[in-house]
User: Fold this.
Amino acid sequence: MSGQELTAKMIVVRVIQLLNNNGIILYIKYRGALPMNYIKIKNTDIIVSQMALGTWVFSNDTTWGSQEDGLSIKTTHAAIDAGITLIDTAAMYGNGRSEEVLGKALKGRRDKVVVATKTADAHPDKETVIKACEDSLKRLDTDYIDIYQIHWLRRTVPFSETMEGLLKLHK
Assistant:
């Protein structure tokens, strides 16, 4: 593809061509200048790439099948090298394994990305939300999370109670 700019559609096609027989992305091989678009998230100072790297596959669980940590780390590095700055993960992906693998992948590169993770606790009250975030920080081996979300709201807990925990974390 020399002399030709790669579009997001071409990158997706290239990634699809790199799937192994289990249907798992092994490694984004393209390294070089990628025309990547970036956006500012409304009401924040956070700027992210319009393409994101999702890390559920890093969990090595039955949903996605087996993937070696080394391949997940190479995928993360290739995505960053290609200009992807938004990385999505969650505590529930492989019971935290996805966050752990991502933490390893971001060693020396944490400042280059925006990490978005989430909790899916069955009872997201204030204390549970704070504890879940602290656990994610440990698994990610970082001292900050850029975007912290509630994966699924639960009607068993008043939303105001969940928000109390999120607001305390924001401070």
About this structure: The first helix runs from residue 8 to 17. The helical segments are 8-17, 69-81, 97-105, 126-140, 159-170.
